[in-house]
Amino acid sequence: MAMVSFDSLSGLRKAAILMVAIGDANAKLILQKLCEEELQSLTAEIAALHSIPAEVSQQVLTEFNELLTTHLYVNQGGIAYATKLLVETFGKQRAEDLLSQIRRSQDADHGDLAMLQKVDPQQLGKFLDAEHPQTVALVLAHLDPRQGSQVLDSLGEEQGVAAIQRLAEMRQFSPEMAKRVAYILHQRLEGIADPHRKSYSGFKAVADLLNRVNAEAAKKILERIEESSPEVAIQVRHLMFTFADLISVPAVSMREIVSQIDKKQLALAIKNTPDELRAHVFRAMSGRAVEMLQEDMDIMGPVRSKDVAAAQQHVLLVARKLEEEGKIILRIEQDEALMI
Description:
The structure is a single chain. The chain is an all-alpha fold. Helix content is 72%, strand content 0%. It has helices at 11-21, 24-31, 36-47, 54-90, 92-110, 121-128, 133-141, 145-154, 157-169, 175-193, 197-211, 215-228, 230-239, 251-259, 263-270, 275-282, 287-300, 305-324.
């Protein structure tokens, strides 16, 4: 029997291996989210699996975790933000590979009219009111009855009647045409399908800018923003210091941060971080504490990226609180001396 190679696996085969690797309970939750066609293909692939080497299963799990992390970074701050963090975490080549896979996945999603189910029906209806009735009918055919009725309510009377008539007369449609329509609509609907994406990039741009100005000036600006838009101020504050930025925290401040964090939470937060950042954290701990932390990390096994992100966010919240209380300094400018 030929040896199974990770590099030779198709996406469908990797998905089948993943379903087996994560166990029946977790696999069931994922399978329930698939459409009938996807379920049939994946079930057939699982049935065709034979002996899979342990190292191949581990590679599939690792890649899945990396892709989840990539999705998280892209959703948090866009491609530029994700690229920066991925290069720091995985290196330039691996970062490019992961982003390429995400783009291919997004392109496939954009060619699926089912993605319009994520769009607010009233906004979608107003948008479709200017489209050709045949296009509207095609979209309605891909929505469930509840969403379809809400879209119909948002259409003008003439457009609604014309679209319903086209839908009633529709007997079949070309999958290629559906993909083409879906892709075009996605390009026009980006702002509607994800109304927070552009504003979040704006938050990130502001955070990057304020990170580079005088700390006192940044504080005053945020306080002024907070008076009229508290939510905006919160979003910017959360983006002004990332987990990767901990590498620049002075040792004395790092010791204070580490002392305030539950060690199992800390182990989860640094489990998949670059060696340099992990070493910086270890230097803030005693030798025995480091040994115990490494033991926790070893027995932890594979972890979900959202759990890691939550643990890292907790560490950052503690760090910001300590800084606000005047107990630590998170950043030292190049021309600034630290006096103890």
